[in-house]
Input
Amino acid sequence: MDHPLFASLPPEEQAYLLQLDERYQFSFQQQRQLIESACDLAMWKAGSLKMWIDETSCEHVSGKKRAGALLSDHLQRMERERSMPTRYQDFEVEQRFTDKYRSLFVSTDKLMGRCPCPVDGEKTRCCNLKTLDVVQQCAFGCSYCSIQSFYNSHEIRVVKNLSQRLQDLELPEETWHIGTGQSSDSLLWGNDYGTLDALSHLARRYPELIIELKTKSHRSDYLKLDLPMNMVSTWSLNAPTIIEKEEHLTATLQQRLDAAKQARDKGRIIGFHLHPMVYFDGWQEEYGQLIEEVTRSFRAEEVMLFSLGTLTFTKAVLRQMRADGHQSRILDMQLTPASGKYSYPLETKERMFRFVYEQFPDAWKQGTPFFYLCMEDPSLWEPVFGFSYPDDRTFEAAMKRAYQGFLQQRRSRI
Ligand code: SF4
Output
């Protein structure tokens, strides 16, 4: 079989597929679908492809149609599995992903980018976040992470002369918020490479600019640095089951919340992202408890932002994950086309987002924190939040008002 993923399958799966192909003479597209299924089942530890194929399902047809009937029955089984909440109770990951360390100082022409929303912006509601790729690659091992497929996995690449580069950087007038978490985890390295110092000069030169440091770490030593107030720390949160099974080597939920408390106690501005939410068996219980814990530990006026989002994959990332074949159940989900990528069906997303938003007490829904859906279909806003924005510009303007208002209020207290 010519498909590039065929070679990444275990030998016994390859042998089975070759025998099957001999009997049914699949087309290239049919072979691709079967190979992808075999890759997915191996990652999910859900048995061999043979267990998901029923050759009696095509007994009623003859000739070339047999291949189609067999495949269609198989895909229906897979779809039934995908549409159910992912089960993690019987899923133990034997092999954790390894640390990836080898620091490399690189010169790069391109320092700034933009968030991965589609450019026309009307398929997702986009806040127009600009990105600064000061460190590239991450030492955590989230199974769903697209960053892993961008860079050589054993090299942590740090921009050479970052301090000078940022001193020379002239930001376009419309740039008001920048994230450094698109190419790595923003705080995992702390200030080890001097990145936070360098960013702090930029933040001081542009006092209205918000620089967001997004993390899944529990690092807090950076709190000793004299960072300006417009450098904001945010934590990506998730259910304990997802952290344990899919976000390898990251801090636990409790460690992340403790790190956020320490930052809050130091007077820093903080925020949270519940992203990517996963539709798994137990999601309501665990996400419900998570919101309870957040609202018990923090007051609404201490949190600048709270975003919600789910899993979204590009074709390239799906291909990479299947080729890598790490044990993971993250792709045990319906892969519905969504603005050039693949994600849960809208109904599933709406159920999860609505549920989570409903768990917040009313005191949290008075403008602070600023709630938003990250990279999601605009039609979801109204049913989830009871409000929406007519276009990206209005959304971005509302976010800017909220963030900068929060910042001014903080500064006025000092
Ligand atoms: S922490 Fe972020 S950058 Fe690092 S592996 Fe996870 S998703 Fe990727």
